[in-house]
Amino acid sequence: MIIRPETPADRDAIRTINLDAFDSDTEANLVDALRDSGTEFISLVAETKDTLVGHILFSPVTCTGDAKIMGLAPMAVRKAWQRQGVGTQLVEAGLQACRQAGALAVIVLGHPQYYPRFGFEPAANHGIESEYEVAAEVFMVKALQPGALDAINGLLRYHPAFPAL
Question: What domains can you pick out in the chain, each with its CATH number?
Fold first, then answer.
């Protein structure tokens, strides 16, 4: 399996992956909206035998101050490829790409049983709040630089494409 950056030729396959992985078209529409917004983001695909089987996207999140924070959303793996390590490889490669891009931290609204294996922990433990009313255990943060969470606090906001959907 190869994890690589998205290319323009991958657009339709990425949409298909998101449609296959989720029960609605919300995530597929979100990816398209973020791409069309011109926002700088990190988008990786998992490829095997010339077929794309997974996708992950990280987009900038705003907070008090000027700390560079990325939001992980969405991550999708085709149903036939789930529980085979594709998501793990995508998350690990994506976190590394965010670190290389100079991000201090990554946030995620996600499964509290899945994301802690990558070092995510409840953001509320660090005084970081979500713009959405969600349970504390599903809004998580991971520092990518030493001391990064000391520089981040308050309300974090995702790109405007998120609430627009």
Answer: 2-164 (3.40.630.30)
